[in-house]
Amino acid sequence: VAARESLNIVVVGHVDHGKSTVIGRLLYDTKSLPEGAIERVKRISQEKGKPFEYAYLLDAFEEEQKQGITIDTTQLQFHTEQRDYVIIDAPGHKEFLKNMISGAANAEAALLIVDANEGIQEQSKRHGYILSLLGIQKVYVLINKMDLIGYSEAIYHQIKKEMHEFLGNLQVYPLKYIPVSAFWGENITLHSEKMSWYKGEPLLTALDLFEKDRGLEDKALRFPIQDVYKFDHRRIIAGRIEAGTLREGDEIVVVPGRKTTRIKTIEYWAERDKTKHSQAGMSVGITVEDEFFNQRGEMIVHKEDIPLIANTFKANIFWMGKRPLQKGQEYKLKLVTQEVECEIYSITKVVDATTLAATEDAGQVNTNDVAEVIIRTKREICFDEFRNNPVTGRFVLVDGYETCGGGIVSGLVEGLKAGS
Ligand code: GDP
Question: Among 92, 72, 84, 65, which Cα is nearest to 26's?
C-alpha cells in the first residue's frame, strides 16, 4: 500500500476569531472525530445553555487522545480523499516558534483567521509577521464570522485589501482569501449559497489545492562531508546525503572552495544498498576522480545547482541562551557538518515570543526571544535559504558547550559583497 500523503498545517489568528471553531468544523465535516465526541459536545453545550459549540470538539478530541497510549503530543488529524492533514498544535507561540526554528515541528502551510466583524487586530498582524519569520509561504486567509456582517461582500473586500497590503510588506502573499462562517459551516465544505458572490473554492476543497513541497530527494544535491577515510590508496568521502540524488559519474563541485571533479564510485556499507544511485536520507561513502584534499565541513553538490556561499547572511533566530545575546558577540555556528566561529553583526528586530511584540534597534536578545539578525562567519560557508532547503538552511549557535540558539537562513545581505 502506498503511503498516503500528509500535510502539516498551523492555524493562527487573534484569540476568539475562530481558530478552534474552524478546526472543530473541519474535524466534524470530514468525520474525523472519535466516537461519542459529538454527543459529548452536544451535552456540554446544552448544559451551558449554548448552541452546539464546534470549538468544544477540540477538547473532546484531545481528551480522547490522552486516554490512549500515545500522549506525548496531541495531534489533530483529519482526512480528505486526497490526503491526511495534521494540525500542528501551537499551545503557545513560544513553543511553536522554538519548535519550528529548531526543526522539531514543521508547518508546511498556514491558515490565518480574521474575524470579519472585528477586523484586523494587532495580533492578526503579529501572526502574519510570524509566518514571514518562519518562511511559511503557503497561506490562506480565512475571513470568518461572515454571518455577523450579513455576508457582506464589501466588508470582505475591505478586510482582504488591508490584509493583503500588510502581508505584502512582509513578503507574505496569501494564495487565497476565503470568506467563511465556521460556526454555520458556510464555505467550509460546500460552496456557500449565502455568499454566491464568492467565486473561489470552499475551505476543504482549497486545502487540497495546497501543493506539497518537493521532497528532499527531489531537491538539489547536498552531500555534506562528515569524514574522509583512507583505505589502502583510496580516499573514501563519507557522509549523509541531505538532499537530492547522487550517481556514479556525476560532475560535482566541492564547496565552498569550488573545486570540480567527478564521482568515481559509490561505496556501500551494506551489500543490500547496492544501487547505482543514492538519495536523500542515505549515508554513503564515495570516491572521486581527482583526489585533492577534502575535509569535513565541505559539501558536495552538482555543478548546475550550487548553494549560497558567503560569510554574511540574514537569519531569524530563536534565542535560548542563559545570557542575552548581544551585538558583536561571538559564537560557534553549526550548519550540517560545518562549524565556524561567527559574530552577530547586527540585530535588526527583536520579537517577544509570548506577546509577539516587535522592537527595532534593540541592543540585545533575551532568552526565548526571536530576532532577525545579520550573522558574519569567520570564513565563507555554504548554505541555502531555509525556504529552499530546510536542512541546509538551518543552523544552531553554540556558546561554549551550551546550545544557545537555533536559526534559519532568510537570505543574503544586499549591498554587502560576499567574502568582503
Ligand atoms: P479561538 O480563540 O480563535 O479558537 O476562537 P473560537 O473558535 O473559540 O471562537 C470564539 C467564539 O466565536 C466562539 O464562541 C465561537 O462559537 C464563535 N464563532 C466562531 N466562528 C464563528 C462564526 O463563524 N460565526 C459566529 N457568529 N460565531 C463564531
Answer: 84
Q: How many angstroms separate the CA atoms of 170 and 361, rounded? A: 18
Nearest CA to ligand 1 atom 24: 145
What sign has the CA pseudo-torsion 127, 129, 131, 137?
Answer: positive
| CB-ligand 1 contact for 17 (6 Å cutoff) | yes
- Going by C-alpha positions, the residue among 53, 50, 25 that lies closest to residue 113 is 25
The pTM assigned to this predicted structure is 0.86
C-alpha cell recorded at residue 378: 569567520
Is the CB of 219 within 6 Å of ligand 1? no
Which grid cell is 288? 572521486
Burial 122-131 (b: 16+ CB within 10 A, else e): eebbbbbbbb
Q: ipTM > 0.95?
A: yes
* Regions of the chain short of the pLDDT cut 70: 1-2, 62-75, 89-91, 269-276, 416-420
User: 238: how many CB neighbours lie within 10 A of its CB?
Assistant: 16
Assess whether the previous peptide bond of 256 is cis (omega < 30° from 0): yes
Per residue, the 3-state secondary structure of 174-205, as one string, reads CCEEEECECCCCECCCCCCHHHCCCCCCCHHH
Note the pLDDT of residue 35: 81
Angle at 105 between CA 9 and CA 336, to 5 degrees: 130
